[in-house]
Amino acid sequence: MANHVSEATLQAGPSVQQETGAYPKVRDRTFWSVLSDDKYYKWILLVPLLSVLLIFMLYPLFYCIWYSFHEFGMVKAATFLGLENYRDVLRDAEFWQALGRTGIVLVISITAELVIGMAVAVLFNREFNGQNPIRGLILLPLLIAPLAVSMMWNFFLQFDFGIVNLTLALVGIPKTSWFAPGVGLYTIAGISVWQWTPFSIFVLLAGLKSLPRDSFEAAKVDGASAWYTFRRLTLPNLAPLIMIIVLLRTMWLIRLFDPLYGTTRGGADTELLDWMIYRNTFVYFDIGRGSTLAVISLFLTMIVCGVLFRQLMKALSATSE
Amino acid sequence: MKRVLFWAATLLVVFTFVSPLVWMYLTSFKTNADIYTQDLVKMFFFSPILDNYVNLFTRTVFVRELINTFIISSASTILVMLVALPAAYSFARYETGHGHLLFVTISTRMFPAAVAAIPFFMAFKWLGLLDTRFALIILYLYFNVSFAVFLLYGFFREIPAELEQAATIDGYGRIDIFRKIIFPMIKPGAAITAIFCFIFSWNEFLYAFLFTRNMARTVTIGLASFWASGQVDWGTMAACVCLAILPTLAAAWFMQRYIIRGLTFGAVKG
């Protein structure tokens, strides 16, 4: 809209400018006046960002795609393989295992976070003394470095002297090795749940606090049960927020890496997708294979990201109205 | 009765999220004997010592790591803000690119970290930039810029466009509009965004791990190195964790109201 006004003033000359008053200072089309016209100005503002994006998006993208078609081990020159890398990876049981484990971690973590988060959000959805400090305390884990969190839990879950095993022993549960094959994956998911449940709690609480009151009062008058109200009114109203939680967490969990480094180091049947990329590229120096895995991982994320973006934009325009 | 139940549940929730942190801080003041003890009474009643902190500062390169992390995080945050502020303003005010460009921007944040790691490792190796602070500053610029743009985009949209139109009619130029109208209004949002970028850089591990060895290593690398050696020195590690997470705990406490908004890219106002 502002666009049209300014174009008109620039073309129609000084007299019209006086009338609309959009650009009183502009007399001739000097260099500066052209640049500060909305049409160009908005792009000039984007120049730094676009240059950053060009370098940091296109270069890695093309690099990975290019070498995913090659055999390249950093020592010899790359040789063209066509789709050989992709066929290899897709036939590799390890890849499907890593993908499956990533899926397991995704499902477990997100489900647990949503269920616990919803329960606590409903619990906190009232005014009570000390709600601000309590909220602050619960938010504490959220911003800690994931690596630090995993090392903390690594310490708590030590077999011999870890506080968790010692406490469980008090109630008669035998010591467990938390990072053994078959257990480790769930432990890592659990650590992630500990750190990220506060996120779900307060996103959902924000949603609960902004629910439309009148329909709930109507439901109460009609004598609807609490469970019925929750299922039929609360949940549908919170659906966009739940969607945002699921998508954001998916995005972060797909690239889970730090907690693995702080605990099992990809051993004990806990290798996830990002760790596999890391191992192939930086431990085995197999750039071709690493790039192939990276491209596949990117492809998976882009799908989620597309959906996420639409949800975020919807939420942003809903709240800024 | 209902009140009792409510407070019991609330205490349980608070205990779940706070007690691990408290335990970590307690551990950092324990001797090795107190750390390895199986006796629950001794675990809680011990005579606190500072040895772990002394070890951390004298026997490891923790000070250098702290300085590095601080320089890298601050420098990359400043760069991010310089790039993100004008871009977010352009997106918010003119809908430049009709949302498509915004999508491209946010999708860089969603790139699996490893996708960018491989090409940049090769590039930095070629340029001789491995194990320099500069490499990490640049990588964290990439890492945070899309997040900052998106968050600032939300903040800019809250500034009514009418204000600027009024100012234009009053004869303000572009620079004056920015200085006198936009900047004062975006300041709180910009501060929050900057703190988030700082924290994300502070916490980053994968790039720091791949791109530094010795000179430019950051706090998270120092942390990880405890776990790398055969015999883990849990006491010193606890001290290291406690100091490394201190800025993030402080940020979480003081930014309570904005954490959810930040982590949801501005979509949910917590």
Descriptive overview:
The complex is a heterodimer of chains A (321) and B (270). Chain A is mainly α and 321 residues long. Chain A has helices at 2-12, 14-20, 31-35, 38-44, 47-68, 84-91, 93-124, 131-139, 146-156, 163-170, 184-209, 213-221, 226-254, 258-262, 273-283, 287-319; strands at 70-71, 79-80. Chain A has a two-stranded antiparallel ribbon with strand order 1-2. The radius of gyration of chain A is 27 Å and the shape is globular. The model of chain A is unreliable at 1-21 (pLDDT under 50). With 270 residues, chain B is mainly α. Chain B has 2 domains: 20-49, no CATH class; 59-263, MetI-like (MetI-like fold, Orthogonal Bundle). Chain B is 79% helix and 0% strand. Chain B is built from 15 helices and no strands. In chain B, helix 4 (51-59) crosses helix 13, helix 5 (62-94) runs parallel beside helix 8 and helix 8 (133-157) crosses helix 10 (174-203). Chains A and B meet through helix 4, helix 5, helix 7, helix 8 and helix 9 of A and helix 1, helix 5, helix 6, helix 7 and helix 8 of B.
Radius of gyration of chain A: 27 Å
CATH homologous superfamily annotation of the largest domain in chain A? MetI-like
Order of helices and strands of chain B: HHHHHHHHHHHHHHH
Quaternary structure type: heterodimer
Poorly predicted runs of chain A are: 1-21
Q: What would you say the CATH architecture of the largest domain in chain A is?
A: Orthogonal Bundle
CATH class of the largest domain in chain B: Mainly Alpha
